[in-house]
Specification:
Helices cover 15% and strands 32% of the residues. The protein is of the alpha+beta class. The protein has one domain (3-202): Beta Barrel (L,D-transpeptidase catalytic domain-like), CATH 2.40.440.10. A nine-stranded mixed β-sheet has the order 3-6-5-4-13-8-9-10-12, with helices on one face.
Length: 203
Amino acid sequence: MDRRLFLSSLAALAATTTGALAESRTHFNFNNNGGRRSTTGGSFFGRSRYRGKQTISYKTNEKPGTIIVSTRKRKLYFVLADNKAIEYGVGVGRRGFTWSGSARIARKAEWPAWHPPKEMIEREKKQYGRTLPARMEGGPNNPLGARALYLYQGGRDTLYRIHGTNAPASIGTAQSSGCIRMLNEEVIDLHNRVKIGAKVIVS
C-alpha cells in the first residue's frame, strides 16, 4: 500500500476509533477578539459550541488533583482547592462503548504512540474490512494527540486513556471507543497539572 492510500485509510477511521485521524497538520492563531481560528480556514472548534476551559466553583469531597469526568455533561473537572475546579470539555464513548468507575493515572506520555487494542483491530476488520496498524508513531496525525494519560485499576491497564484529539469538533460528542478526548492544547494543560497516581472518577 502506498503512503497516500495508507493515510487515506487511516483518515476514514475517525468516527470509529479512539481518536480522529482527521486532516493533516493544522496551525492555529488568535484573532483580535480572542477567538481561536484555524489558519487553514474555519473555526478552531468546527461545529462544536465548546469555547474552552474555565475555572469554576465546584464542591466535592475529593482531594485537589483528582480528575472527575461526567460523561453525561461531557465535561472533565480537575479539582482545585477552595471548592474550585478547572472545567474542560471532552468527547466520550459512543453508545455501547461507555464505561464508569474509578482508576488511577499510572503513566503520562507526550506525543504517544498508538497501539490499537486487539479487540479493536478485530472489530474493524470484521465490521468494516479495515486493517488498523499495529502501531502508529506519535505526531500531529496520531489519534491520541499531543498527550495521553493512562488509566489503571488495581495495577492493570484498563486500555482507556484521557488523550488529545486532532478533531476539535468532536469535543462535546460521543464518538470514541471509550476513551476521553480533549483538545490538544487542553490535554497539554491537564498533563502538566496532574500527578502520577492521581485518582480518576468517571460517571
